[in-house]
Every structure is written in structure tokens, then in C-alpha cells.
């Protein structure tokens, strides 16, 4: 059964920034949007570019490769070309720790 895993600390990720993590063979990104931490797949569904290298504007992430956009709260595609959404993951905060349920 999926459980929450400690992945990072809040102090690791500044407001408006994101970071990539490798967990259990998955590439994930954690983003900090005004103190809210969101976790999602780190690889674009279009041509597999690393989403941590993209641009974050509130909850909209733009992939640096071809400009595809995702809503990082829902994983939905906001702008093509990505053919499919990304997975998003539940986040729990315990003191300074960020835990992700995979
Ligand atoms: S790889 Fe992300 S939009 Fe093409």
C-alpha cells in the first residue's frame, strides 16, 4: 500500500521554485507556491524533458522544451503539445519535513 515518504525539507525549496527528486525509480518534482508544496511527475509526457528545468508561474508549469503547460495542482495539460496529463501526488507537511505519498 502506498505510504508517505519523507522526501525533502521545506527549507530546501524557496517560494516560487521547484526541485527534482528521484524516489523508488521515479523522477518527481516538488514545487513551492506561496508556501504550498505540490508534488508531481518530473518528466514531461511529450518528449520526456525534465520539468524541473521549466518555468513556474503560480500553479502553471511551462516545459522548457516545447512550451507545453501543465496545471501542477491537477496535472492537467493547459497547453499543447503534451498528449497526456502528469501524475500529481498527495503531500503532507510534518514540521519542516515534506512527505509524499507515491
Ligand atoms: S517535452 Fe515538454 S512540451 Fe515537449
From TrEMBL:
Residues 5-100 form the Rieske domain. One of its GO terms (molecular function) is 2 iron, 2 sulfur cluster binding. SUPFAM superfamilies: ISP domain (SSF50022). Signal peptide: none annotated. Transmembrane segments: none annotated. The keyword Thylakoid does not apply. The keyword Metal-binding applies. Pfam families: Rieske. Belongs to the bacterial ring-hydroxylating dioxygenase ferredoxin component family. This is Rieske domain-containing protein. It comes from Candidatus Gottesmanbacteria bacterium RBG_16_37_8.
Amino acid at each position: 500500500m502506498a505510504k508517505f515518504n519523507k522526501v525533502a525539507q521545506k527549507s530546501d525549496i524557496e517560494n516560487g521554485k521547484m526541485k527534482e527528486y528521484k524516489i523508488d525509480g521515479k523522477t518527481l518534482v516538488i514545487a513551492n507556491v506561496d508556501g504550498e508544496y505540490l508534488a508531481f511527475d518530473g518528466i514531461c509526457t511529450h518528449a520526456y524533458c525534465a520539468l524541473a528545468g521549466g518555468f513556474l508561474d503560480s500553479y502553471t508549469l511551462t516545459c522548457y522544451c516545447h512550451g507545453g503547460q501543465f496545471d501542477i495542482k491537477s496535472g492537467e495539460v493547459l497547453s499543447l503539445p503534451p498528449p497526456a496529463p502528469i501524475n500529481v501526488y498527495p503531500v503532507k507537511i510534518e514540521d519542516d519535513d515534506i512527505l509524499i505519498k507515491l
